[in-house]
Amino acid sequence: MPEHVEVRLPDDVRLHVEAVGPADAEVTAVLLHGWTLDGRSWHRQLAALRAAFGSVRVVTYDARGHGRSSCMTLPTATLEQLGDDLAAVLDTVAPTGRVVLVGHSMGGMTIMEYAHRHPGHFASRTAGLVFVSTTAEGHAHTVYGLSPRIARLIRLAETTGAGVLARCGAWRPPRALLRALRPSIRWMLFGDRCDPTDIRLVTSAVARATLRSIGGFRASIGTQHRLDTLATLAHLPAAALVGDRDRLTPPPCAESIAAALPATELTVCPGAGHMLMMERPDKVNEALFGVLRRVLAQTPLHGF
């Protein structure tokens, strides 16, 4: 059974954290979910990791304003704050040993922000990286699988709507509305195939996200640019994965990450959309296991 931990941050936000594996593990894998989702996104990876790497500690948590974590003030609904939160989670639930950071979408951007804002902390702890359906260039490549002109109109409507939602505080989306929107959610997030249990899980996660987080994080997600930060991490074992039907972070996003990290193993999954850890769990697990094996084979870093 997972260990449940509440991490209280300096601004009194409480993060819901779950961990399995030995507290004194040599390596801890931290899995960070995407925008409007929660730690349950990784359920297929959690089961596989427990079976294959019993000596590795595995941590997931719900970002501020998501899942079972508490809401926050609107000014802290930023990727910068999420980078700070990640540093705090590591200090609390994995204070020693090496860390492999695994991020989906906004979770990947959180890792980049942590590296940018806390370079010393990052360098002293991080031994491997896995980027799943994410970007280091904001919405530069996001066209939703449509023509650029239509994409600009959709982005304008999306950002305007996000600004309205951000002012709605801790309210959560009505479940009846989300059920009605399920076909649109399926189109936006999934590729050719979608297991019904996955769309139900995603809809459930969105229903737990506060309207402030759904709207508030949109601005910094759209404007973040961290390719220069990634270029300083080229020495780390890393993997990047993307679906060729991903409408939010299409293949050029992963290709630019791989270009910044030349040793990165890039995997493009045909027919898959944005939810790769659900749509192609075997591919995500294979990439994650590969990075973990490389990290475990290394001599422990000085001081660990």
From TrEMBL:
Domain spans labelled AB hydrolase-1 = 30-287
Q: Do you know which InterPro entries this protein is assigned to?
A: AB_hydrolase_1, AB_hydrolase_fold, AB_hydrolase_sf, Epox_hydrolase-like
Q: Name one GO molecular function term.
A: catalytic activity
Highest taxon above the source species: Bacteria
GO CC entries:
membrane
Q: Which Pfam families match?
A: Abhydrolase_6 (PF12697)
Q: This chain belongs to which protein, by name?
A: Pimeloyl-ACP methyl ester carboxylesterase
